[in-house]
Fold this protein.
Amino acid sequence: MSDDDMSDEIEARLPEEDSFEPPEEFVDQANYTDSSIYERFESDWPECWEEAATLLDWYDVHDQVLDTSDEPFYEWFTGGSLNACYECVDRHLPERGDELAIQWEGENGEKRQFTYEDLHEEVNAVAAALQDIGVGEDDVVSVYMPMLPELPIVMLACARIGAPHNVVFAGFSSDALATRMENSDSEYLVTVDGYLRRGELLDHESKVDDALASVEHDVEAVVLGRREPWSGEGPHGYRELVDGHRGTEVEPVERDSEDMLFLMYTSGTTGTPKGVKHTTGGYLSYVAWTAHAVLDLTPEDTYWCAADIGWITGHSYIVYGPLALGTTTVMYEGAPDHPDKDRLWEMVERYMVDVFYTAPTAVRAFMKWGTDYPESHDLSSLRLLGTVGEPINPRAWKWYYRYIGGESCPVVDTWWQTETGGMMVTTLPGIGEMKPGSAGLPLPGIDARVVTGEGEEVDDGAGYLTVHKPWPGMLRTVYGDDERYIEEYWSEYSDPDEDEWIYFPEDGAKVDDDGYITVLGRVDDVVNVSGHRLGTMELESAVVGVEGVAEAAVVGGSHDVKGEAVYVYVIAEEDADAGDELRGEIVEAVEGEIGPFARPEEVVFTPDLPKTRSGKIMRRLLEDVASGEPLGDTSTLRNPDVVEDIRGQVE
Ligand code: WT7
């Protein structure tokens, strides 16, 4: 963000300090206030994690906290059994049946509220409906829905009957949905025909039709009619099906701690997305505990995580974490600037939101929109703020702290990943000093370190982030591909001969002399656009599929609001016309194969790509060009002139 986006007056009101103590009024009521928790967890590891497990009501309590007999295929709370839907719904009924579980608001102002009692009724009806169409225990149910209350309801219904869900973000294309359904052998799909965004009703139905036409196996689909009551041929209408089961009670299925709860696909270096497998006991304990320790949630809170449930943030911290704790979770369907740029603050005021969690990209957009929007609302109900998904620059952190939190709310900058299931590196809000820009210490029980390329620990400086002990929320494998699990996450630094297993998240990081970790960003070929992870290989494969494209390279370049944006460099075929038409087709291909959120910022035609003498594309140089950075060393290039040519076009 350039400096003139913020007036001098607003800038002058930002706090100057580089570190902040937790505000007293927060500490007075925080769930954790004693820093001895760090030593306690370290000296009692892995038994310390019973503190997480005891937040739940298990059918059978575990025999063993951690089973390391087949590293790195760790198992947590073995011998224990539970049901995630029971934990998030049924067990709250005696004390909190009348309290709100979900507070939903549509973009058009429509409101739907579900008490825990209502949620119980809905989830049971949906569970019975799913059983009715043939879903059995361990069948993977794909869910392709926008932010409607039915999305968490379907997830919980799946959990109730022991059917793992596979939620695919609604912004993904039909191709992306089809790939995920194929890879997960998913024979069931719950979806909608359309949804609202910025006042417009988007068509979802044709994406669903295209996906179903390309999936090789038969799929039983359920469609929620949003545009009109569903009357299409083939798939079941959601309302009709579910209403037919209203009043039915479905006994929650007792699941083993290590039974799969869900799959979530995410991008990595290589072409195909990975199905990250999360299991029941460890995951649920971990998200409940981190929601309790880091978001400081209590059952009395109204909590709003302004993410989409289609990503892991929403799974862990809109659905499972808060509901396991009996909190009220707010869900908002639409855009943050609809009808105006104070929509979120208007809602925070109206629902008296206590805890608010969002992404740095959103904070940067709020900064751009100006302080009048938050200042025209009473945000005094807020007591804690959080961010997730990408690094937050200190200015954006301070703006959030000052203008949203009124300098009385701690800000937790939480580093974690789809694979980690829950938060890993962040301050504990009632204990830790906050340093804007730095996520903080590894959570108690989490052995995260910064190491050099050779694996030597760095005490004060930059290197790579690594995790040296397993944790309950960790992924268990890449679905259907145990080898890839080891290859992707456990190969870089582990020493299997010495029984030393080190998890590598593929992030660069630095650490200061207090042990505070600042995560710098991905070191693999992944672009982080507005907190969404995109594999450059996936993007490239979409681009080279376009007729007229001979070769392509896709990189991330810095962007003032999105954090990173997608830049595409293309060598056109000799007889192709390298102009706007081809450019349009390339953009369309990316949107079609991945989704509109992956839309390239720029498509640059070039006669050549910068390559090393061995013919490898030098992405780093293209990244520098995209970010407007000075170029590093180009002496190893086979064709150094090409970089200047490309730079001329980007500027
Ligand atoms: C990648 C994981 C975790 C839910 C949302 C993203 C980056 C995440 C932070 C943070 C700096 C962060 C990392 C990570 N990231 N949180 N607080 N500071 N970087 O989940 O799609 O799996 O992406 O997001 O690069 O590896 P994801």
Summary: The pocket of WT7 is lined by residues 266, 312-313, 388-391, 413-418, 439, 505, 507, 519, 521-522, 528, 531, 533 (CB under 6 Å). The first strand starts at residue 64 and ends at 67.
